[in-house]
Amino acid sequence: MNFIIKSFKEFTIDELYQILQLRSEVFVVEQDCVYQDIDFKDQKSLHVFGIKKDKIIAYTRIFKPGDYFDNASIGRVVVAADERTYGYGHDLMKASIKAIKDHFKVDKITISAQKYLKKFYESHQFIQVGEEYLEDGIPHIKMIKNKL
Question: Which pLDDT score, from 0 to 100, does residue 147 have?
């Protein structure tokens, strides 16, 4: 899989459509969660996406410090359902963490993680901070990574 990093304005129409379709497929349909995915935060983030056989199968958006949390952050972490058995989620997180280091030059990253993925994010050195909370009806936890 090849990872690409782009700003919102650099997207082709096809890339944007594939990303929005993937996010909708997983976050709205698969997780049965009606929420406002298109939130006008895409315009201020950088987008990290993985392409396999000309199709976007993995995606995150990253924010510089202050644009979402006080620290840099990673959000909308998603891998297509039929591609999850290959470990692409770990590759995606590594690429996103590296993109934060390369583009924002900071050491701390904050995420709002779905609780069931706690061990996944811990494997990337994120640590839970605070108590569980509901976001769009799904249990989440705040997690922080202190060193890149």
Answer: 75
